[in-house]
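Worked Example 4.2. Read the sequence first, then its structure tokens.
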Amino acid sequence: MSVFLGIDIGTSGTKTIALNLRGVVLAQASESYSSFQAKPLWSEQNPDDWWTATVNTVRKVLWAANISPEEVKAIGLSGQMHGSVFLDKDKNVIRPAILWNDQRTACETAELEESVGGRDQLVSLVANPGLTGFTAPKILWLRKHEPENFEKTYKVLLPKDEIRRRLTGEFATDVSDASGTLLFDVSTRKWCHPLLSTLDLDPSLFPRCYESPEVTGKVSKQVAKLLGLSPDCIVVGGAGDCAAAAIGNGVVSEGILSTILGTASVTVLNSDKFATDPKGRLHTICHAVPGKWLFMGANLCGGGALQWFRNQLCIKDYLFQSERRFDTTSSGSFYETLSQEAERIPPGSDGLFFLPYLSGERTPHNDPYARGCFLGLTLAHTRGHLVRSIMEGVTYNMRDSIEMMKALNLPVNEIRATGGGSQSPVWVKIQADTFGQSIFNINCDEGPAYGAALLGAVGARAFSSVQEACEATIRVVSETQSTFRSSKYYNDAFRIWKHYYPILKESFRDIAVLQDTLES
């Protein structure tokens, strides 16, 4: 039997799956870890936690499915994009990794754009505007604020590529993940040396870049023994989580769009041709399919907004005395409880709106100072109203991206839902009604890990192409249709919701200034 592992280094945890040639998931395992917010707007993690989770989940999967070492032919890697792992010459991690949702680099981002002659010029170089979450501003921040650490830096790796290094000993990345560094020429699928020169960054800081199905190395003998694998097991380029999720959703042809509701909320649309959003609101990245690209709308807080609500406002008995009535031993069961409460609330949450900018925002506002808020609260609103308004606010955010794609004459013929939020029937129905078209679920819901495993299978030559792998394993299994009356209501509500950010934008900045004043 040939088996392919997909390992996804996510923000909240690592997930590993074992896949056979028919696309059947033989086993899966997950292990969570924490992020650290040492200061407001900061978000960091310890790469050792990723590795521990990788080791544990791989072992669990092999044991659960009784897989022998020689049966595992390939590993595909996926992971949170944009994060920065700084290594010294001895391959030691210098400091905690700075994550994609870290917003500390507003000044460095502005300086980066200015250094190349403005946003339009930057977009012409790397297909994307300067964004605080991207990798390049993090490197510039390190050089400015922690010069001693910058001087020690020998390599800068993305999260999944640090796991690759520990698996194989190789420094490597793939074109989709490199697209999110702001240092990569997305049109030619190569590092952007003119920009590196302008920023005075040594090209040797960055690893060799591969197409996603290409082989980047083999598991080292020591790690093979540790994990229970063969040293003949290959490791392919893999993909950033958005591109890997697109593969896992079968988004490999024109007109198919995927909504990904994980910690963030992301919309990705396949494109056979390279193009950019002239206003820099949508991102263009290299697809994990060689010769294709993805248009992407990225919202920094998607399912993470509901997770925040559950963790901060629902678990503590002193805030909700009724909490003892619910089973809180499992996060899954409690999310089901919240979804059931939201389902009993009518569309529009009785006039309650939610702005999901708990971590600042990327698409379309590119505003690290944006803040989350409820608008329209009354004494009549219940917890169910709050939950539904969170789901609606996140969905409005995704609709914003879809509307921009359509305005660029990009076809959106079919929408497929994935991520943890797609497990909530009420949230999928909200998507269908808000977007005004059916939402399709597919036969697998493992998202990026599934796509990564398929890339491994292609690299092992079990399939001739990524498209063939998707056609052989992925199929639509259910459809959630939109309701005319609800869609009409959401059209009106969406227009109201869009007015709130422009009105509050300066207030958000005033809050940030006040916060800085108090801290100093």
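Now turn to a second chain, presented in exactly the same format:
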Amino acid sequence: MSETIRQIDTVLVANRGEIARRVARTAREMGIRVVTVFVDADADALHVDDADTAIRVGSYLDGDAIVEAALRMGADAVHPGYGYLSENSSFAAACEGAGLIWIGPTPAAIDAMGDKIEAKRHAVAADVPVLLSADDPDEFASVGFPLLIKAAAGGGGKGMRVVESAEELGEAIDAARREALTGFGDDRVFAERYVRRARHIEIQIVGDVHGSVVHLGERECSIQRRHQKIIEEAPSPFLGAERREAMGAAAVSLASAIGYVSTGTVEFLVDDESGEFFFLEVNTRLQVEHPVTEEITGIDLVRAQLRVAQGHPLDWAQGDIGFTGHSVEARIYAEDPSAGFLPATGTLHAFEAAAMPEVRLDSGVGPGSSIGTDFDPMIAKVISRAPTRAEAISSLALALERMHIGGVVTNRDFLAATLRTAEFAAGDTTTDFIERVDISSPPAEAETRFWGVAAAMWLQAMNRARAGVLASMPSGFRTGRLPAESVVFALEAGGGDNLEVHYRRLRDGGFVLGRDADQGTVVVHRVTPDSIDVEWGDIRSTARVTRAGDTLYLTGPKGTVGLSIVPRFVPPEAEVPVGAVAAPMPGRVVEVRVTQGEAVLAGDVVVVLEAMKMEHHLRAAEDGVATEVRVAAGDQVENGALLLVIDSTE
């Protein structure tokens, strides 16, 4: 073995969730032992179970503790994943200073390109076109409105704010700085011109210690909400060969100029009308959306990172890299699209990929995982690959629809509906897609009713299976005419009336529906503790079933329906005061902007709540007076907690 090659026998992954599991998977395939770190809130996380050894730390941002953990566990190297300390040059230098192999670009490269302000300067020096920007908050207005505020030391939508006018600027800067500090430990922000109708296209680069740098093509990541990507694909449906070559060459030129090592991503904004492209930033790490590049190139990017870190040359020159087929990735978040994509919390009682079509699932959660407010709300990535773009889109949409998810509100149905829009199929995927395209896809009433009947039949069968007395007798049995039984369900997602199912068992084992037996017959062909095959009228279908307490989750061909059993006798609920402002999710109160007795106007921000590393501004619904203020800055509140009351009659 060459003296320039440093063997990695044990790697510590300084991250959590799906990326920690993703790195561990490739490391094990290469014969490398894996150590992971975890905090108290992640004590039962799957990335802890996956590791050969796991060690507790106080924070994923505590670089000193992570270096110490790596040394204690006998690790040779540290892989930072993405987010947290992955673009922190001081952490990279600390790892190298402790004799550990840093799996990523050099600290100097992180300083030069990981810092978004510094990266722009290098791009200008390399004659790569950039957007008009300003680094000094006092000069942000000179960029013009609308402008976009961004965190200098990170990404992922944290610390980003679109500002439409000078009146909004001060508050937006303050909020962006707080989010940047929380997410990346660095509160520096900058502003750049905001292009409303554009495409977000990035070039994957890989460099080695011997001076070689190549690109692995592009990814289009234009479908975003809160400036955070939710659907990515490779290759882009927009780029032609000439522009693709120009952007790839610009990315390699910029990386080569500073001797870039390891994986990275050069991000560009492409004007949808003119086709001009502008340098945005360099992510000096692995990207969340890296799987689509792996799927069309056949190159394992984590393996490339590990080999480069050991000193091996790249396995391929630029001309050796080919692209086959098309790949699309959708990010499943614990969030409610119908409520402005607010993060959601709860327990994943059901979580299982569809058996068909076969897709790739990268996830850090499983059945029973708790989704709280401590971390980013992304819970999984689902990735398809097919010979054509149309097939990749269709297979991903179907895989999402057939995925069994229950217990936490997610954007799964929104993602599937997005993929099935005519605009997405046509490649009309600019960054304003969600704002301009109708993506609503509520389930048909007849479909919901069918699964309500299936739920009633499954519940009836399970109740009979658990019967301790006369278990062989049909439910509702009498020596005379069998009476009707009933169950009432409420849709977990809300909206619409409750589903009331009346059924009476027939002597042949089937059921007749309706209070007056006027809704047809039902035949249960097969029922197990986790599924039911049911036929109602001329429709027959099978559902995957999970029960959690009094809620049933049924997944059929078009998604999951959550049905909660409505008790026959409901205790009176506490009356919610008129004008109440409640917490839309668990979180920490950052700021209370009104005092008791103070007048407020509709639209005024009254409380700032932080949850999942993002700030959420709660506003007054109408003019009035704050008659009750029940929280203060620093308070931790639960979902639905009453924060204050605004009386519009005062």
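Notes for the reader: The two ends are 81 Å apart (CA to CA). The mean pLDDT is 90.
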